[in-house]
Design brief:
Blueprint (H helix, E strand, L loop, with lengths): L7 E4 L2 E4 L1 H6 L8 E8 L2 E8 L2 E4 L1 E2 L4 E2 L6 E4 L8 E3 L17 E6 L4 H6 L10 E11 L9 E4 L11 E4 L5 E11 L2 E10 H9 L12
Antiparallel strand pairs: 1-2, 2-8, 3-4, 3-9, 5-8, 6-7, 10-11, 10-13, 11-12, 12-15, 13-14, 14-15
């Protein structure tokens, strides 16, 4: 198992992440999966579902692709039956336009990838997300047409947390997605950048697809 980054459920069969995470996955070779908590015949279980495709960001402001925005969606149709239930809910979105400097937030994901779970004995091989807290330390405005606003957060962004959620500390509503962080001489600094939900939600909500069974999503 190799962990390339973080993604979160944002609709039926749709997982939001960074575009560079999408590109790192071997989707075309059929080697990309998500691991999800499920219930099989009444007992908790870990289930792997194949990622069947991915979609690059389309900027809703002008209806065209925008490669400067590091956002993508993984397509992963899942089947949930009475005997094998898929129990990963979609996130609840928050209003990022109401976020201000000094607001407390949480970021969550899979920092350090597989090394955190399988190499460090203290994690006991259990794969689960890790959360950090911080504040919105700056809000960076768009200075060119292809740019979006960015949140700067006072927290480290270790490799593997790309695509992680940024949520309000009091409600858990998602107001952004982690894209990158700063480091000096391989030492991560408490400076993390995130794309706000005002950019993410309109695009991902507009995505639909049809499965091989002909069911729309």
């Amino acid at each position: 198992m190799d962990i390339q980054g973080t993604a979160f459920q944002c609709g039926s069969g749709k997982l939001l992440t960074c575009w560079h995470v999408c590109q790192a996955l071997e989707v075309k070779n059929g080697h990309a999966y998500i691991q999800a908590d499920t219930v099989f015949n009444g007992s908790p279980a870990k289930t792997y579902y194949p990622v069947t495709g991915y979609i690059n960001f389309i900027d809703h402001r002008h209806g065209m692709g925008n490669p400067s925005v590091d956002v993508g969606v993984l397509i992963c149709p899942v089947r949930s039956t009475d005997s094998h239930k898929y129990q990963v809910p979609a996130v609840r979105w928050g209003d990022s336009t109401q976020v201000g400097i000094g607001d407390r937030v949480l970021i969550g994901g899979y920092p350090l990838g597989r090394e955190l779970f399988l190499t460090a004995a203290t994690n006991r091989g259990i794969v689960q997300p890790t959360f950090y807290d911080g504040i919105i330390s700056a809000i960076l405005p768009a200075t060119r047409p292809e740019e979006t606003r960015l949140f700067q957060i006072s927290s480290v962004a270790l490799g593997g947390i790309s695509g992680g959620v940024v949520c309000t500390a009091d409600t858990g509503r998602v107001i952004g997605m982690v894209t990158s962080g700063l480091s000096v001489e391989n030492v991560s600094l408490p400076i993390t950048y995130a794309i706000p939900s005002e950019v993410l939600q309109p695009w991902v909500d507009a995505i639909s697809f049809v499965t091989e069974e002909g069911k729309g999503k």
